[in-house]
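Consider the tokenized backbone below.
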């Protein structure tokens, strides 16, 4: 096990806050069909001074990662100011962006003022027709491609993130080729979820079982090859979710959640110091117990195969029980087993 992996294991086991995701704003220059943000979220947005006080307290707690997200984080009026302050305090900065505003001038400023560890950029297809259909902004794909070239020219590290949908599932191979052209990793989220306000309409874009099978086959084939090349082994080590044990998320009005997907508020920055929320919180204790119960439930279902697909937040959304193994996890587990067996059989032949 690598030293970083060992560090992560310790944060989970000892409840050490390691990473904080900040949803700075729900404003966005795109209008993605499946966006889960509740843009009418009630409450008072956090001020510049409150963010700075939060940063100082997180540094005292030893937090390493600050992730700026949204909405579109660059749409926040204080994005660059907050980013500079976070960098000067020594945080590792990560940014989740749709990439639409990262043209050459903004990208250059981002490198000079924040120098993020990595930028995670959303892409929704391998062509303009598919990408623009999902963003509902004509020309967004062409703008994104131009911006990716600018980021690469500046040597800014980025990865591409995508949500697998019934609209883009036929473009998987082309999307991987596109990512390879930019020498960037491509990460897929195959689980479409309802909006944070309970709206189920995004589920209409869920991928087909065959689309999911195709994605898992590409991922598992690549993983097997990489593991064999590096270690001569395909053994994997898994553990339970780090939500509420090493990570939290904070929305624009200060609500604190175990993670960005698990929308069960455990406190609010307006009302309580973040250290108090983390160290003395009955709701957070319940979250951690739920995580442990989910781990046991997964083990009862053959957990090693299923766990990579399991999210307590999604479980809570679809069933009302964050520890329950929901149907799509069992489907992914079944498909993984079938695909791995097929890959192994092909090697034997």
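A designed sequence for it:
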């Amino acid at each position: 096990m690598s030293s970083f992996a060992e560090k992560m294991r310790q944060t989970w086991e000892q409840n050490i806050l390691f990473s904080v995701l900040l949803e700075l704003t729900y404003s966005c220059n795109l209008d993605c069909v499946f966006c889960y943000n509740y843009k009418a979220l009630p409450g008072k947005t956090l001020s510049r001074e409150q963010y700075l006080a939060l940063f100082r307290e997180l540094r005292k707690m030893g937090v390493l990662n600050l992730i700026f997200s949204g909405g579109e984080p660059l749409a926040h009026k204080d994005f660059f100011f907050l980013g500079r302050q976070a960098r000067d305090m020594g945080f590792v900065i990560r940014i989740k962006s749709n990439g639409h505003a990262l043209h050459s001038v903004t990208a250059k400023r981002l490198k000079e003022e924040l120098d993020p560890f990595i930028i995670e950029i959303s892409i929704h297809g391998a062509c303009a027709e598919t990408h623009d259909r999902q963003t509902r902004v004509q020309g967004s794909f062409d703008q994104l491609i131009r911006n990716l070239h600018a980021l690469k020219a500046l040597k800014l590290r980025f990865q591409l993130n995508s949500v697998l949908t019934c609209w883009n599932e036929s473009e998987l191979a082309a999307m991987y080729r596109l990512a390879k052209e930019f020498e960037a990793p491509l990460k897929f989220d195959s689980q479409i979820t309802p909006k944070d306000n309970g709206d189920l309409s995004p589920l209409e874009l869920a991928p087909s079982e065959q689309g999911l099978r195709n994605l898992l086959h590409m991922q598992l084939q690549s993983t097997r090859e990489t593991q064999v090349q590096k270690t001569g082994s395909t053994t994997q080590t898994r553990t339970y979710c780090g939500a509420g044990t090493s990570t939290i998320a904070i929305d624009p009005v200060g609500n604190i959640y175990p993670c960005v997907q698990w929308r069960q508020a455990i406190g609010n920055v307006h009302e309580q110091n973040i250290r108090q929320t983390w160290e003395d919180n009955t709701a957070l204790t319940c979250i951690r117990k739920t995580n442990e119960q989910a781990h046991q439930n997964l083990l009862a279902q053959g957990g090693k195969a299923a766990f990579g697909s399991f999210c307590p937040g999604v479980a809570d959304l679809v069933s009302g029980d964050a520890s329950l193994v929901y149907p799509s996890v069992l489907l992914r587990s079944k498909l993984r087993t079938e695909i791995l067996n097929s890959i192994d059989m092909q090697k034997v032949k």
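The two ends are 32 Å apart (CA to CA).
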